[in-house]
Write a structure and sequence with these properties.
Length: about 350
């Protein structure tokens, strides 16, 4: 069987919330632990992407280290996977510039995620009607940098959420455009494939019409991986549900109740509709109590590990440096061939 090179990245948003964990990080760990020995896995903390929105330098520095500690705490093994900071590998930005010279502006205008990010930054629900005067060039072109993140390692498989599928298609288009323009018979870049992973969309505990988010001004709307058992119970107890008797899974008519069922099902790797059957004669009080217990059981080990790691700055810096060295070797080999094909030897 041919080996795969799997790449994915996450922004340094500090301590992830439950939605980040169930939506991406748990899947990364599962991919790592089930991948055949000849597969290669790279997981990156994408600091350059964070700059597309205003950042406090001290907070960003702390968030980068916290995210590294979190990835280790949830189970990413630096002896099995290459774990590194994107901004420690210059090849990302160099390749992004090269790829931008192959990217039609019309393709970038069709990207929807930058609109979503602007709306999120303004705590707005409308993802389409966004004032473009607030749009900086980095936010507009960051799908090209995302493509460079993937192609710098000639990744063959990329686990991303549904909201990033459009970006992966752009990445494939750019890989194909570069291959076609430079030695068509000898493509340098594979066309990366989307990795299907179980994706659980976890909604805000206070506004189940939107995703759980760190940008929400209401801290009770999200559960962080550092929350204590009492904080988890309080947040779940205050979660928005409805006054309908019995428990059923109906994301449209009962989004709050369905969100709790989704969380409970995700904690035990079950189907939310099947879980709902077990609660059809029970009330919201029982459901909330069980959700709180399940979430506490899920995060208590990574929470304890994270507390240990956050104080181990020397160890975290060592892991980051080692990962960057391994990533640089791969990315520089790619860039050497890219430069040669472009006449930049």
């Amino acid at each position: 069987m041919l080996s795969r090179l799997i790449f994915s990245g996450i922004q340094p948003t500090g301590i992830p919330h439950l939605g980040n964990y169930l939506g991406a990080l748990a899947n990364w760990v599962k991919l790592q632990n089930t991948a055949p020995p000849n597969d290669h896995l790279l997981f990156s903390i994408v600091g350059w992407h964070a700059l597309t929105l205003p950042q406090n330098p001290k907070e960003l520095s702390a968030s980068r280290r916290d995210m590294l500690a979190t990835l280790l705490a949830v189970g990413i093994d630096p002896n099995r996977s290459i774990l590194f900071h994107q901004d420690h590998v210059p090849a990302h930005t160099e390749l992004a510039w090269i790829l931008s010279c192959f990217t039609p502006i019309s393709k970038l205008r069709r990207m929807t995620t930058w609109k979503s990010r602007l709306a999120t930054a303004r705590n707005a629900n409308n993802e389409v009607e966004v004032d473009e005067s607030l749009l900086n060039t980095g936010l507009f072109t960051y799908p090209v940098l995302q493509a460079a993140d993937i192609l710098a390692y000639r990744a063959t498989h990329v686990p991303v959420g549904e909201d990033q599928r459009q970006h992966l298609e752009l990445c494939r288009d750019l890989a194909e455009a570069f291959n076609r323009a430079t030695k068509p018979g000898k493509p340098i870049f594979p066309l990366p494939i989307h990795v299907d992973t179980p994706f659980r969309k976890i909604l805000s505990l206070k506004d189940p019409s939107s995703k759980m988010s760190k940008s929400s001004p209401d801290v009770q709307s999200r559960i962080l991986l550092t929350d204590s058992a009492s904080q988890i119970r309080a947040k779940i107890r205050g979660a928005v549900t409805d006054s309908i008797s019995g428990i059923t899974y109906d994301p449209v008519a009962r989004p709050g109740t369905s969100n709790l069922l989704t969380i409970l099902a995700a904690c035990s790797e079950e189907d939310a509709e099947n879980v709902a059957i077990q609660y059809r004669t029970k009330g919201h009080g029982q459901l909330k109590a069980d959700v709180a217990d399940a979430v506490e059981e899920l995060i208590k080990r990574p929470r304890a590990e994270l507390e240990k790691l956050k104080g181990s700055i020397g160890y975290l810096d060592q892991i980051a440096q080692s990962g960057a060295e391994k990533a640089k070797q791969r990315a520089e080999a790619t860039l050497k061939e890219v430069r040669s094909r472009l006449g930049l030897v």
